[in-house]
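Reviewer 2 asked us to include a model.

Predict the structure of this chain.
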Amino acid sequence: MKAVKTIAALIFLSAIAIVLVQPVLGADDEPPRDGMVLEESDDGVAEGDGDENGDDAGEGRGDGVSLTARYPGRCLRKTGAAPSGLLAARRGSTALIGLPGAVPAARVEVSGDVAWSPSGTFLAERGGRVFDQRGNPQGALFFEPREWQWSPVADCALATTEHGNLTFSIPDTRRKGIRLVDAPVEDFELSPNGRRLAMVIDGRGLWIADLRRGRVVQATEGPAAIAGWFSNRSVLYSKSRGAGKLRYATGRGDARVVRGAFAGGAVVRCGGRVLLVAEASEANAPLAELRSRRGRIARELLPGPPGAFDGYSAVTCSPDGGFLAASTIRRGGKGPLVLLSSEGEVSRQLAPGRTANPQWSDEGLVFVRFGSAGRGRLWLVPPGAPAPVPTQYRVGAPTQYDWHVR
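Predicted model (structure tokens):
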């Protein structure tokens, strides 16, 4: 009888020990219950047998790369915050924060480009520091990151260190610098819905992680450079950064070449459209749209700029999707800002001289216009206004800015 009691006691203590060593999950880390997994609609890309040259054999294997931490549930949910309308403009090591039509309310010291979190609550800078809307320091997301980006849907950020460690951080918690992948990462980008992660693993090709389920699959072998996402499933890439054919893959053994498209252009998501913007060259047209037809992604050319311009440096679409605003390239340098129809036809010139970085929203169109002495200023085109007006931002020539409008 004593032996039976002794055995029962040992079993009870062992059960307690097992419970104590389990990781504590917060509400945001709760695994999905049956029936709660939300699937995006497929983008229509059919599973194929490699690219047109047959040199992507072996895709879809996921051996050897895995997630080392559970990606928080709050990082997968879209923030419901309304746009703040605040603009952060940087020149050198100084950034100003405020509304475009008013005197800036705060000035902060930064070490690189600035970006608002999706909710507009936090402003992060290249060095990893974070500020609130009034410019008050809120600690650090990362320390000297090599590359970083906010999630497109939630106030969570990812970054790589100089050693290639990919980590995630949440600004208003202690969860910062948590390693996410067990292999060195050269390049990465989150999908538009924030649920998938494309990664170039050092010496091992392109991989795609399903952050909701914690699964990682290999999309391609060999060198890869991420160009952007065509949809929430299909990632665009090339085998050499800025060169070669543009390709796409979903991690299901379907890597293929995008018909007629070459790497080197910027992939711009404009409402429900995916545009490829590039300086005119023998390989690339200035403006094209990527579309999925009959299970294949192909390039469809849009009208190019007038003969006086070489191409476009930046394109943004109006909130209703009816127009595009584009900074042009002329003789290898910055050119005027032009208004395009949704099909790419030049409608009229919005601003003469040299312009850059247009950004459009319900509040109007903001862009940088440079004077004869090379000093720039932020200008605003209010809705319905016939011409742009200068903003109150006097930061010389803004080298970069971010407007939290959508």
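The chain is about 5% helix and 40% strand. The helical segments are 2-21. We have added this to the supplementary material.
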